[in-house]
């Protein structure tokens, strides 16, 4: 079940600045496409630290060092995208997961 999967994943997480990292380079204007691409890479490890770098529309890095801000912004943008997608249905203040999302 999902609870056991999450518990096993939690045990495998490596903490600290010296732990290995999965790198995510993403453009804000195409946040979902970039997130899906990053998460589907063979090199992505969900139990490693995630380092995020934002790119502009032509692929040039913005230059911010990920000390937490870009990572928080990345997850906020991804969750905002998902909240507005067809994955969730219902009134704005009480959405639930759709069984028939396309």
Query: How many E strands?
Result: 4
Uncertain regions: pLDDT < 50 for 5+ in a row? Answer: none
Question: How many domains make up the 3D coordinates?
Answer: 1
Cα shape: globular
- Chain-averaged pLDDT: 84
Major sheet: order of its strands? 1-2
Order of helices and strands: HEHEHEE
Helical content class: 25-40%
Beta-strand residue percentage: 15-25%
Helix/strand class = alpha+beta
Structure description:
It is a single chain. With 102 residues, the chain is of the alpha+beta class. It has one domain. It is 36% helix and 18% strand. The chain is built from 3 helices and 4 strands; from the N terminus they run H-E-H-E-H-E-E. The model has no long low-confidence stretch (mean pLDDT 84). Keywords: Transferase, Ubl conjugation pathway. Residues 40-82 form the HECT domain.
Secondary structure layout:
Layout: H1 2-12, E1 21-27, H2 31-40, E2 49-55, H3 69-84, E3 88-89, E4 96-97
Parallel strand pairs: 1-2
Antiparallel strand pairs: 3-4
Please give a quick description of this structure:
By secondary structure, the protein is α+β, with helices and mostly antiparallel strands. It has helices at residues 2-12, 31-40, 69-84; strands at 21-27, 49-55, 88-89, 96-97.
List the main descriptive attributes of the protein structure presented here.
102 residues, two-stranded parallel sheet, two-stranded antiparallel ribbon, 4 strands, globular, transferase, Hect_E3_ubiquitin_ligase, ubiquitin-protein transferase activity, ubl conjugation pathway, HECT domain-containing protein
């Amino acid at each position: 079940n999902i609870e056991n999967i999450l518990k096993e994943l939690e045990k495998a997480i490596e903490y600290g600045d010296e732990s290995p990292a999965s790198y995510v380079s993403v453009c804000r204007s195409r946040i979902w496409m970039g997130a899906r691409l990053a998460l589907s890479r063979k090199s992505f490890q969900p139990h490693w630290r995630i380092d995020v770098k934002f790119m502009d529309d032509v692929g040039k890095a913005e230059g911010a060092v990920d000390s937490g801000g870009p990572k928080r912004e990345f997850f906020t943008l991804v969750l905002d995208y998902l909240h507005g997608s067809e994955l969730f249905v219902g009134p704005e203040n009480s959405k639930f997961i759709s069984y028939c999302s396309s």
